[in-house]
Structures
1.
Amino acid sequence: MKVVALGCDKSGYPALLRWGEKELLPFEEVEVFSIPCLGLVTEEMIFQILENSDALLLAGCPLDSCHNQKGSRGAYLKTKRVNSLLQEADISKKVAIAFVTSGKVGEIEKVSEELIWREK
Amino acid sequence: MIIAERKPIKEIFSFLVPGEKVLVLGCGTCVTVCMSGGEKEARELSSLLHLKGWEAEDSTIERQCEPEFNLKAKEEITHADTIISLACGVGVQTLAEYFPEKKIFPGLNTTFMGMPKEQGLWEERCWGCGNCTVHLFGYICPVTRCAKSLLNGPCGGSKSGKCEIKPDRDCAWQLIYDRLKKENKLEVLYAIQPPRDWSTSHYGGQRKMIREDVRL
Amino acid sequence: MSALQEILRRGEFAVTAEVGPPKGVNREVIEKKCDGLRGFVDAVNITDNQTAIVRLSSFASCLIAKDKGIEPVMQMVCRDRNRIALQSDFLGACAWGVENFLCLSGDHQSMGNHPQSKNVFDVDSIQLLQILKNMRDEKVFQNGEPLKGEIKAFLGAGASPFADPLEFRVIRLAKKISAGAQFIQTQAVFDLEIFSRFMEEVRKAGLDKKAAILAGVIPVKSLSALRYMQNEVPGVVVPDSLVERMKKAKDPKEEGVRICVETIEQLKKIEGVRGVHIMAISWESIVPEIVKEANLYPRPERS
Ligand code: SF4
Ligand code: SF4
């Protein structure tokens, strides 16, 4: 399973890197990128990424303490929307979003498992 | 504005033949504002078609209900095998009238003329009956908003401000009553409204407007 | 003049009962109900696809009732017929000697068994009253064209004293009466307090002098039926005290009858109430007992 991971500079990206340091990731291939804020993610971008991957993992600040206030919330809503469209269209690709503080990878692990679970 | 909602995606897929070139044609006016058939939605649908293996493109023109705008997009339209129109029913028909050789399918279900009530909520307001009398009813159109189009007051099903047909629908007559009461105009409701002349409405057959003064 | 009209004119307390036609062609169903009611009521009121459920037509059922020697009241709802069909059926029914008509808006089809259907609502109940009145008195159709022949018709309308907005209900009743309603049949009364207040307003407006008001009553068989009335039936208000009373009842059927009879006794005392309309939906057989218990038996003879 090929996963693209996008994290915000402030919290998500550092957490993704730490997660990446683990020896056993649950996916065959993971590409990690940074972005200034998840608020910049658009539905169009999500679809584009999904053209060449099976899943997109977004990592950003917690909803109530987003560095840019509405960034995570906006990304969360878009994730929901895209997932429901994918589901309606019977396309087995998906987007997940993890809310993290820079140090913690637990949330990412949880969410990535959700991606695998949904794969089955 | 005209309100429409997207058809279930599977229904849209069912219109298409594998391998054909698909154009998703959005409309930049009403359906953009009600977030069902604008640029964003056209792009989303073409992305989904792409993910499903179709060769899909999208384009959005200002008003699909006007021939000029459709003709401007001639190149993209002729290039595609099939067009999914994300305009209201008027837009779909205009497009089909000007491109009779094309396979065209509606991507939306056109539902009503209404207004955005709050973010994510639209409500019907007018039926286009051809003889507006909304001023007689506290600016709440009973033809449209009462489930029975009653003109002389509420039926016996009005309960706590809600209509008998669905508990989430306001009873138009409660709204009319409240508004006229507030304005001290309840006496308006004492007058018996005679049977309506529905011939100005859809019931008189398809309607046309002719303006000699502006005809060429 | 219809028997119902005559009885009301003489100032006698009228009794009518609702008869629901069957979901099929068995006329015996109506005949049996009529046989059971004959002598206990002044007229039977035959519903017109009530709650938007398809049944044998009110028109045909009225003729069957007449055959059985019982006077029918033909209900006409505005949901299914436009002014063309309504006027035509009115003429047809008059030609067959039906003399009482009750004009109603009708329950919305979304509540019935064909929710996918289109509705009509070309005219509303008040406009229908006006149309029928003009056909009778002015001998003209709705469009103003003349019609031929004498029409004998006693026109009625429904009233819903418990539906919202409460304050509008008297206005609406006044409109119905000025449109042509000569008798009024109310939604079922369980809450006598609200109803008395309604009647007070009605008297203040002098409406009780202009039309004969028949109060509706429904005998209920069980607690669940009463609860259903309380929660599901549009325009019906059931006070909690009645529910409590039903809860405690050893024999709910008997209690239902008793409640109904007591309600009628109370209604008789309310000035302006000129009769009762018993809606014993699919329990028509209980009507004779109620009529007797409420001291409304025997019914007055026609003069
Ligand atoms: S009266 Fe007719 S034109 Fe006016 S708002 Fe109602 S339906 Fe529309
Ligand atoms: S409840 Fe109100 S809106 Fe609904 S049909 Fe009756 S009068 Fe019309």
2.
Amino acid sequence: MRPALAVTGFLLKRLLFAAGTLLAVSLAVFAATEILPGDVAGAVLGQSATPEALAALRASMHLDLPASVRYLHWLGGMVTGDVGHSLVNNRPVSELIGSRLPNSLLLAGAATAFCVPIGLLLGICSAMRPTSVFDRVTSVATLSIVAVPEFFIGTLAVLVFAVNLRWFPALTLSPRIDSVEGFFRSMTLPVLSLSGIIIAQIMRMTRAALLDVLRRPYVEMARLKGVVGARLVLFYALPNALGPIANALALSLSHLLGGAIIIETIFNFPGLAKLLVDAVSTRDMPLVQACTMLFCLAYLILGTLADIAGMLANPRLRAS
Amino acid sequence: MRPLVEVSGLHIAAVDGRGAQTPIVKDVSFDIAPGEVLALIGQSGSGKTTIALSLMGYARDGTRITGGSVKLDGTELRGLPARALQQLHGRDVAYVPQSAAASFNPSRRLMPQVIESAVVHGLMTRREAEAKAIALFAELALPDPANVGNRYPHQVSGGQLQRLIAAMALLTSPRLVIFDEPTTALDVTTQIGVLRAFKRVVREHGVTALYVSHDLAVVAQIADRILVLNQGEMQEIGEAERLISAPSHAYTRSLMAAARPPERNERPAAEERKPLLQVSALTAGYGRIGTNGMPLIPVLHDISFTVPAGHTLGIVGESGSGKSTLARVIAGLLPQAKGTVTLDGATLPPSLARRTRDQLRQIQFVHQMADTALNPSHTVAEILGRPLTFFGGLRGRARDRAVAELLDMVRLPAAVMHQRPASLSGGQKQRANLARALAARPRLLLCDEVTSALDSVVGAAVLKLLAELQSELGLSYVFISHDISTVRAICDQVMVLYAGQMMERGVRRVLSSTPRHPYSDLLVNSVPELRTGWLDEIEPAFGLESEVTTTFPNARACAFFPRCSVHIPGRCERDTPPIQHLSKGADIRCHRSENELRALAGTAVAAEV
Amino acid sequence: MSSTVEREPAHVVIKRPRRMPIPLLGWVGIVVVAFWLIMAVFGPMLTPHPAGEVIDPDGFGPMVPGMWLGSDVLGRDVLSRIMAGAQTTVGPAIAATLLAVFIGGTLALAAAAVGGWIDTALSRTMDAVISVPSLLFGLVAVAALGVSVPVLICTAGVIYVPGAFRIWRSLAVNVNAMDYVSVARERGEGMPYIMRREILPNLLGPVLADCGLRFVFAVLLLSSLSFLGLGIQPPDADWGSMVRENLPGLIYGAPAAIFPAAALATLTIGVNLLVDNLPGRER
Ligand SMILES: Nc1ncnc2c1ncn2[C@@H]1O[C@H](COP(=O)(O)OP(=O)(O)OP(=O)(O)O)[C@@H](O)[C@H]1O
Ligand code: SF4
Ligand SMILES: [Mg+2]
């Protein structure tokens, strides 16, 4: 009864915090992109614009209204999906995003499907034999991978696999999902380069979580009861490490977002992140706003999941 | 008959990352006959657990058996393949660890863990194992044996967990059971019940056991023979009876002397002296103070006492009874909700910030853990020098001289002046900690469990130092401890706390004479005596089911009511017990009259909670 | 009198804390980091060719003596440009790190010492800021404020304030709960003395390690922005922008993009090795 209440209370608090953060982020994004750069209309029409044209554009963009009203209007638009028009090519932002979203989801999904099992497996293996050669090698290797910039891995992958070995195309003009072979040829390099860091993250965090559990007295006690091997992992190590591991997974996967920005640029991959980078380069504010909010939302969802997983790991609460 | 366990010439070493070895067990040999209980006794770090684990062919990470042989029923365990050892673990040799709370998997229910070794080794079906476990639970006097196994570890008290883990060890009827300090983490009133339960099953099942402990009195109750260990080396081994009554080795004698320090001489009665510290009607706790003037989490209720100049007041009570909280209130770290604290006639402001520098100087707190009370980034000279400068304005040469004097006062070599705490031993740290308090030239020291983190021999030396400082400097002490024999050794007056209430108060002698408050009675009778057979003589039902509750039943009830076997139904749980004066010179808080208590003395059996 | 009290048994008299040796990997880290720090200061003076000089008009030239790492897209010497670029890469990152640690550390000490609602409000705000991915934060800031070195430094600084705040706060709260701080308080010491003499000396080790990691993050962030063309602008060049400008060369197998990326990798791995193997840190 009480623990169940505690769980609900925690969930409510966490969701409330996530919602509050999203609101604060929206305010910050709006302020940064609408108020700071000065006159958006001027930026759109360029320096040679006539005063009449400027005034007309301002009115059509509601720039003559006070900032607070514009914010509420904009926020309303965000919630209902009406996120305005691109300043650069005047197409609806939702349409631009809609055309890129599937590609990005595909990339993220493929990377997740690839990273999670490999990262977990490597993490569990090295935790089972700490201080072994395998463990030492993997920990230096993963440390290095986590430490280097994404574009190092990306460019290296292009040089080796696309240029020297010619296994894959260096550029992905659009992912070819019509044939299996095409899919693999266009997706493998981006997914691989994106995966390096995430696999390393998952593996390091899984290893740490498991090692922490394996050092507990109840694991030694189990060994002294004659419990070894799979039973030890299944009944003792994994159940108690599950929360931290789930937490680690969610945190690692949130690196997908930052990674995607770089990887999509290297491979010219037509995803959301590339859209955002291009929008920033051309200072296409409505597009920047919408993409930013979308990314923050995804990031917050993962972060919230991570926290919830961490909380559920507490047996006192779970035992209810 | 051949011994079940034969250990000869055993050497174990700690091996660090680069392969350097430090010996931790040196040339230890002993054997254990079937049905015999051998006790391994020694202070922390003497290698007890390391030896115990070697009987399972197991060495913790970072340790290695480097020589000698360990045989179980003729089979050499050294070098046995992992597979064979695993067959042994939990079936032939079982282990009862010090902290049951840490040794149960927190995310599984208890029953599957208790029967696991039987199931893993294929000795019984799940149902047979559960039936046997329930029978063992009953034998070990666990409440509700049929259902306790369905709980999770955190839903069961510490004393009960310790019995559950013993049931787990005994379930497979192993040939050897290793008890590793199984009652050390428990309060003394809880320990006795667990000890009795252990003793009964050991006797009835004819268990062969190795019983590891640092407490001679505990070991005397349960062991047939005792092996004394110091710094990894055997000092003496012999029949328990003989070893306790006539120890032959000097180290054993020092252990025994430290275990039951002599009581100090009687001193002029309290009334003849002027009170230095006076505490009256003190109520305190944690959290915000509510509209009724009570804190959110009340801890202390209506506490009053005085400490005469040059005297020591001992405060005893089990863990969580509010002893440290009381010291924090007196020191000004935790402002009280009600009541006053008076020093030498002047009322002290509740909060630290309001006290004058001189008031702060006069009361010094000596913390329990010297480890955390000394700033690791300062040298001893800096630690002692700061209060000298702060309170006495000493600087330069004068300060250095004062530091050297202080070190001499606590019998530390002057060379430690330039060291940092990390390079001192536990006893040295506690002395430095004491010197730091003395540097303020205080009149009252608040000593919170100052010896409980120390080994008994080192602790006894610190106690002796405290007594000498008192007579040299005329200090007064408030001496907090959970250990009655320590309190007896150093205090002039005592106060017994239970759940934040004063239960009994008087000169030290009141603890040794009846009638007593029922809780004092339980406390005093729970301390094992340093002789064999003591456990067998006490009341059969005594302590068998006593568990700690720190919850405060209802605002008016007697706090001890849930555990009091002589309570008066309809009265004790309803009315606040009055404070009454006994003819032996003590004040107690109880509904029972002196005559009733005299008639009931010694039967104060803790009832089931 | 005093002779009646036993002194400590002789065998426990003085334990010297053993000096922890720095493992081999730690030395590797120290050497690499020291090398790049020297480059950051003196690199521009030591280059074999002026960093902006076009030597090989064809561009993407091979590795030959005199141009050990080949030439870049415009035919400039890659080695010289990497040496000169150390300053543009390391400098802003150090500035951002110092900014983040200074602001985060001060706020954290204040939060830990004052406590109460100020602590709660600060902690919540930091939690909110940290829940925006850092590269995204950087992109929005650049979109809003335009690209310039001060903007980059401030942006990276602000991004890593919450991380520094969290570490410092949790460390300070832990130390604050130690008995020796309580002892100082019982004595009546003032807040400044307690913070400076009792708390701060015990924070230094872990805080230095944290600075190292935060520096790595700042380097990665700034060079990622440069890689996207939204960081350091020509004619200045840091390693990230050098990767960007030489990316087209990859198609012809020219390694001009790999070397600056590899230089970055050695720097960040070096700092990580150094921090991980600092004496007294548990692995
Ligand atoms: N900071 C705190 N906030 C809330 N409750 C506390 C706090 N410190 C202690 N308590 C509670 O106050 C009660 C008394 O604690 P206290 O430390 O005074 O006991 P103690 O007698 O010194 O115990 P021990 O022998 O274990 O040291 C306990 O129930 C404890 O949980
Ligand atoms: S008042 Fe009643 S319950 Fe309390 S100690 Fe006395 S007899 Fe026991
Ligand atoms: Mg205490």
